[in-house]
Design goal:
Strand order of the largest sheet: 3-11-10-9-8-4-7
CATH class of the largest domain: Alpha Beta
Largest sheet: 7 strands, mixed
Oligomer: single chain
Low-confidence stretches: none
Mean pLDDT: 92
CATH architecture of the largest domain: 3-Layer(aba) Sandwich
Number of helices: 16
Radius of gyration: 28 Å
CATH superfamily of the largest domain: Type I PLP-dependent aspartate aminotransferase-like (Major domain)
Distance between the termini: 62 Å
Strand content: 5-15%
């Protein structure tokens, strides 16, 4: 059969929609999806005929079968659960932390109705969404105040923009990290409007390196946790306590980006390189940022905590509206933090 004859035998979209199988498709799926699938399959068949022809008759049943498969493909949700067999427990490409049952329950509880997201019930007036989560974070971390944004990159960005726009931030060269998705500290700093002031070397940074860089244009001393790599051998770094002492001497705030953020002292499990959030707060850091969806085991978000005067300043930044979290994130995060009130239970009930 010639190509022209084969092309003429291809059924029209209208014919396929009106036949019994087409009517079944339309009962189960949106008309738009069905039409798109039909046109996709028919177009592919035309191209196949024009390119190489067909041996024998046009396979109408096969065309209908292909359309059914295409409809199923188009109708399927793209985001789907997987089994993590990678060997990496908190895999950032596989959805990060798995939420606890209580976090999921609280999300569902809030999602299905209106809520007091930004309404103060006791006073009958507009409230602030951060009030729902602030007290529990303060209790567990020991910080004076707390704030939540949509991820840790946003937390770092808004803090730098708030306190160091057009001013310098001192960072050790050994802490200019890059994590997944090409998140680089120098680029985040540039986007925030802060000016990077590198000190020390890749493997060694002394307290004197920070002190020698202090000038009237320094807005922050920044400490970045090396969460995804480790320097071994001939190395030295300045502790948070030492940096805080230097900051107090020169009246410069100290900010610490913890990255993963852990609420449990992992030394009891033989892990000594992951500082607990509470320890960093006790060290005197003015601002601490970390993720909610890694070691914490909650939803994706960025948590900012520290001295009250600094957190309040961040809340006044217009950028906060652009990086704020929604009610589902707050619901999951609140439930997750509440589980940490009993550390033993948290370890059992929070999957990651």
């Amino acid at each position: 059969m010639t190509k022209q004859k084969l092309l003429s035998k291809i059924p029209s979209v209208d014919e396929l929609v009106k036949n019994p199988r087409g009517e079944k498709w339309l009962k189960r799926h949106p008309r738009r999806t069905v039409l798109k699938a039909i046109r996709t399959v028919l177009d592919a068949k035309r191209k196949e005929i024009l390119k190489q022809g067909l041996a024998g008759e046009l396979p109408i049943d096969q065309i209908s079968s292909d359309i059914g498969k295409e409809i199923s493909r188009l109708a399927a949700y793209r985001l789907k659960p997987l089994i993590n067999a990678s060997g990496v427990v908190i895999h950032t490409n596989l959805g990060r932390a798995v939420l606890s049952d209580k976090a999921k329950e609280n999300m569902l509880h809030v999602a299905g109705s209106y809520s007091n997201l930004e309404y103060e019930l006791s006073q009958g007036k507009r409230g602030k969404r951060y009030s729902h989560i602030k007290d529990i974070i303060k209790e567990l971390s020991g910080a004076e105040d707390a704030l939540v944004v949509n991820n840790n990159a946003a937390a770092v960005l808004i803090c730098l923009n708030t306190f160091a726009k057009d001013m310098e931030v001192i960072v050790s060269r050994g802490e200019l990290v890059e994590i997944g998705g090409s998140f680089r500290i120098p680029e985040i700093m540039e986007s925030s409007g802060a000016i990077l002031r590198e000190v020390g070397t890749t493997n060694k940074t002394h307290l004197s390196d920070y002190e020698n860089a202090v000038s009237g244009n320094i807005a922050l001393l920044l400490k970045v946790h090396q969460s995804n790599y480790k320097l071994l051998g001939f190395t030295e770094e300045v502790s948070i306590k030492e940096l805080v002492k230097l900051g107090r001497t020169y009246m410069i705030p100290v900010m610490t980006d913890l990255g993963s953020g852990c609420m449990i002292d992992l030394r009891q499990y033989g892990i000594y390189d992951e500082p607990a959030v509470q320890d960093v707060v006790r060290s005197g850091a003015d601002i601490v940022t970390f993720s909610g969806d890694k070691l914490l085991g909650g939803p994706q978000c960025g948590i900012i905590l520290g001295k009250k005067k600094f957190i309040q300043k961040v809340q006044e930044n217009p950028l906060l509206r652009a990086v704020r979290v929604d009610k589902l994130t707050l619901a999951a995060l609140e439930a997750t933090f509440m589980q940490y009130l009993d550390e033993e239970r948290a370890c059992k009930e929070i999957p990651t």
